[in-house]
Each structure stands twice: as structure tokens, then as C-alpha cells.
From TrEMBL:
Signal peptide location: 1-28
One protein family per Pfam: LTP_2
Family matches, as PANTHER family: BIFUNCTIONAL INHIBITOR/LIPID-TRANSFER PROTEIN/SEED STORAGE 2S ALBUMIN SUPERFAMILY PROTEIN, BIFUNCTIONAL INHIBITOR_LIPID-TRANSFER PROTEIN_SEED STORAGE 2S ALBUMIN SUPERFAMILY PROTEIN
Top-level division of the source organism's lineage: Eukaryota
Domain called Bifunctional inhibitor/plant lipid transfer protein/seed storage helical: residue spans: 16-106
Higher taxonomy: Eukaryota, Viridiplantae, Streptophyta, Embryophyta, Tracheophyta
The keyword Signal is assigned to this record: yes
Protein name per Swiss-Prot or TrEMBL: Bifunctional inhibitor/lipid-transfer protein/seed storage 2S albumin superfamily protein
Keywords, ordered alphabetically: Signal
UniProt xrefs under CDD domains: nsLTP_like (cd04660)
Keyword Signal (UniProt): yes
Source organism: Thalictrum thalictroides
Amino acid sequence: MAFSNKSCLVLATILMVGILIFSQQVSSQGECGGALQGLLNNCAAFVTKFGPQTDPSKACCDVVKAADVPCVCQHIPPGAELIVSMEKVVYVANFCGKELPHGTKCGSYTIPPASSFEIEE
């Protein structure tokens, strides 16, 4: 299915409105040492439900490395998961060196246990 320029503009507008609403909910909570706003500003493109999973930018990783990611996961506002993929959030955290333990909840997503086929070092 091909998207027209108008469809892409509408989708981008909806995405930005959703991110702004999410940002407003998050910043009003004042949780996690203020890291949520920086994460939204630098990592939103890498955690939206729209589009493929991609490696985050250095700017995104810099913010992730400084953030309390478990705190962020515990304070995902209701409705945010309509636009934010928790699986991508976990991927970005892991990629940036902030691996979350198996069984940790990030929003409604629970990080699955390690596969029994993985080789432990």
C-alpha cells in the first residue's frame, strides 16, 4: 500500500500530537529525575509503533545512558502505548547499554525470560 504525501503528513501530525500528549502527561508527573522529557526529545523516532525497528542515534543513547530506565518503565502513562512500542523501548535501552532484567515490566510489556537455547557465558 503506497502512501500519498497527504497521508504521510496526516500520519506525522497524528504521531506528533500523540507524542506531545504523552510528553505533557509525563512531564506533569515529575518522575524519574526529569529524564522523560529528554528521552522523548531524543528517542521518540526509535520507539514509535510506526515503522521498522532501527538502531537509535548517539544522542538518544546519551540520554538513555543518563536515565533511570526502570523508573521510566514504571511511569509510562496510560494511553502512551497507543503510539509507543514497549518492545522498541526495551530494544533501545539494551542497544544503548541499559539492559533491563528479564521479568521487568515496561509499561504493560514484561521482558521475557532468557531463551533456554541461549548460551550463558
